Amino acid sequence: MSTNNTTPITGDPIANSVKFAVFLAFQIPSIITSSIIVIYIIVTPAFRSKEQNHSICVLLSFNLLQLISDIPLAIHFFHLNIVQPATSVHCILWTWLDFTLNTSSVQLMAWISIERHLFIFSWNLTRRMSRLQRWFIHFAPLILCSVWCPIFYFFTIIVSPMCDNTWIFYRPLCGVPCYLATNWNYYDLIFNIIMPVLFILIANVALVIRVVKQKLSRVRPTRVDRHRQRKMAFQLGILSMMFLLVWIPLCIIQFEMIYFMSDLLLEFNDFIVYLLYFIPLLLPFIILFSRPEFMKNFKGFLFGKRQATVMPTTIN
């Protein structure tokens, strides 16, 4: 994940204290909610068997990993106003986790946005494909989105053959990795971030256009298909909006920072980078809100179903 490649001033301890309190207040219920959702998915074969749920399961897995690894490191920094332990190993691990999990999530969201078009408008076409073709179309992008970023950032941050990292222990993420001052920064920003964000935006705009166009056409889907289309479009729209509200401004600012550098851009960049943490913090609640049928089944799983008691009657 591209960030600014300059050395900013030390953060404000008061502002860090506020961020610590806010992040901690969101993290605890978010971890609890995510854990319960994951347990529900594990013990509910009917949910896992649906292909349209597989991508969400992978996204939730990455999100839970970020909640229990990356975000606690950020909370620890905001609490102490310094990276502890102040070692290169700690900085490398934190930076690799943060860049990998944030960028993998936005790439997974890009694939989910594209995949929803197949499930909504090309369901019959995919059902006519062979089992191998369906497996490849469905799982190959998920595997690629899951392994590409860990490998890429392992090479650029941990191995780092193109430069030597210099860490700043009073900055979040220990400053920035040195590869951002090389040509690898352009590749990272354009191909790993800007392109997935564009895919999310274009896929969602195209989805709205196709739904409206189909509604106005003479040949309309059945009532069941129309209900399924609205439901899946709503679920995608809520999730995508959360990603786009943060990632579009970040892409614009970081692209401008390649050619222009100013204190104002640095301040905006730092502010939006902090907002990235709210995506994993809010994602479990967004998923619950956007899937009413999931919430209904979830309540049944959590509290059980009441069964009516049949009393024997006596016939005189």
Describe this structure as you would to a colleague:
The chain crosses the membrane at residues 20-43, 55-80, 92-114, 135-159, 189-212, 233-259, 271-289. It comes from Rotaria magnacalcarata. The protein is mostly helical. The chain has one domain (13-295): Rhodopsin 7-helix transmembrane proteins (Rhopdopsin 7-helix transmembrane proteins, Up-down Bundle). The protein contains twelve helices and no strands. It has helices at residues 13-43, 45-49, 54-68, 70-80, 88-121, 123-127, 131-159, 184-216, 223-259, 263-275, 278-290, 292-303. The radius of gyration is 23 Å and the shape is globular. Mean pLDDT is 83; it is low at 3-10 and 306-316.
List keywords for this structure.
single chain, 316 residues, mainly alpha, Rhopdopsin 7-helix transmembrane proteins, globular, disordered N terminus, disordered C terminus, transmembrane
- SSE run: HHHHHHHHHHHH
Helix content: over 70%
Q: What is the count of DSSP helices, taking H or I runs of 4+ residues?
A: 12
Number-wise, the strands total 0
Report how far apart the termini are: 80 Å
What's the CATH H-level superfamily name?
Rhodopsin 7-helix transmembrane proteins
Mean pLDDT: 83
Biggest beta sheet attributes: none
Fill in the CATH topology: Rhopdopsin 7-helix transmembrane proteins
Global Rg: 23 Å
CATH architecture type: Up-down Bundle
Number of individual domains: 1
CATH class: Mainly Alpha
Structural class: mainly alpha
| Content of β-strand | under 5%
